């Protein structure tokens, strides 16, 4: 894969697409908060165990106070309404580095800790916003949809090739539902060892999100940490009562080591 620029990125928070109101990512990071030295006296090299995982996303937002009622047929509130509320509940964040299946995406469940405007002497107005992980750390995932996917009925999406055979460490997936019109929709991750050529697509055990009946909405799911997950993954939507519009983004992380939360 060649070197890429930072163009064409996207940022989703709480089921809202804030890409058009976001100027930059100032800090995206996470991982281990430290290690513990467990080197015994009968060893000739250091031995260390990883400790707690953490994560953070900080970004610069523009001041956009527009609401859904201000600009019909726009159906979304913009950045100021969403961010200035400073809720104490967890927020779901997804920073996508592209809009194709397989594009890396930083995903995190965390607390928004500030909303700090700065008015420069030249009149420009920007807002610094920070979020810190809560419970799971930051996970680098791969997009399982090509940016925002729009389904008007039950559908099977294109597949993601993870490049290696089956791994036995489960998966984690993140969902951002931006808009929904209809009765219900179920979003499920499916797997195959050969992209469906001989091994038929089947639902990943524990890989279905809670049924969607409204939007915006978000969810994080996690399978068993010892579960085998195959090489190819895709997203399928089904419905029992029907729907006419479902706009959503899914990102998935299939670890190559055991990760416990």
Written overview of the protein:
This protein is mainly β and 261 residues long. 2% of the residues lie in helices and 49% in strands. The protein is built from one helix and 19 strands. The strands form three sheets. Strands 1, 2, 3, 6, 7, 8, 9, 10, 11, 14, 17 and 19 form a twelve-stranded antiparallel beta sheet that branches. Strands 12, 13, 15, 16 and 18 form a five-stranded antiparallel beta sheet that branches. It starts with 9 loop residues before the first strand and ends in an 8-residue tail after the last strand.
Give a concise summary.
The chain is mainly β and 261 residues long.
List the defining traits of the structure above.
261 residues, mainly beta, 12-stranded antiparallel β-sheet, 5-stranded antiparallel β-sheet
Q: List SSEs in N-to-C order.
A: EEEEEEHEEEEEEEEEEEEE
Mean pLDDT, nearest integer? 94
Profile the largest sheet. 12 strands, antiparallel
How big is the Rg? 20 Å
Give the arrangement of secondary structure elements.
Blueprint: E1 10-13, E2 16-17, E3 22-32, E4 35-37, E5 48-50, E6 53-62, H1 79-83, E7 91-96, E8 104-112, E9 116-119, E10 125-143, E11 149-151, E12 155-156, E13 160-161, E14 172-182, E15 186-192, E16 202-208, E17 217-222, E18 232-238, E19 243-253
Antiparallel strand pairs: 1-2, 1-7, 3-6, 4-5, 6-10, 7-8, 8-10, 9-10, 10-19, 11-19, 12-18, 13-18, 14-17, 14-19, 15-16, 15-18
């Amino acid at each position: 894969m060649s070197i890429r620029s930072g163009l064409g990125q996207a940022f989703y928070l709480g089921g809202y697409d804030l890409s058009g109101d976001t100027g930059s990512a100032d800090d995206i990071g996470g991982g281990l908060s430290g290690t513990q030295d467990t080197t015994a006296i009968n060893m000739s090299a250091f031995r260390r165990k990883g400790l707690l995982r953490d994560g953070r996303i900080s970004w610069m937002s523009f001041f956009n106070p527009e609401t859904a009622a201000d600009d019909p047929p726009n159906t979304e509130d913009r950045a100021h309404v969403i961010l200035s509320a400073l809720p104490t509940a967890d927020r779901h964040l997804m920073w996508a580095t592209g809009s194709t299946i397989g594009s890396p995406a930083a995903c995190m469940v965390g607390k928004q800790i500030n909303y700090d405007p700065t008015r420069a002497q030249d009149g420009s107005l920007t807002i610094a916003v920070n979020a810190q992980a809560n419970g799971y750390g930051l996970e680098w995932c791969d997009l399982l949809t090509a940016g925002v996917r729009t389904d008007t009925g039950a559908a099977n999406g294109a597949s993601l090739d993870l490049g290696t055979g089956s791994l036995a460490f489960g998966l984690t997936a993140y969902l951002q539902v931006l808009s929904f019109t209809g009765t219900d929709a179920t979003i499920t991750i499916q797997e195959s060892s050969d992209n469906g050529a001989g091994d038929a697509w089947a639902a990943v055990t524990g890989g279905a999100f809670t049924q969607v009946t409204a939007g915006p909405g978000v969810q994080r799911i996690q399978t068993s940490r010892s579960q085998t997950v195959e090489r190819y993954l895709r997203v399928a939507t089904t419905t029992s009562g029907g729907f006419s519009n479902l706009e959503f983004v899914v990102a998935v992380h299939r670890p190559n080591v055991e990760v416990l939360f």
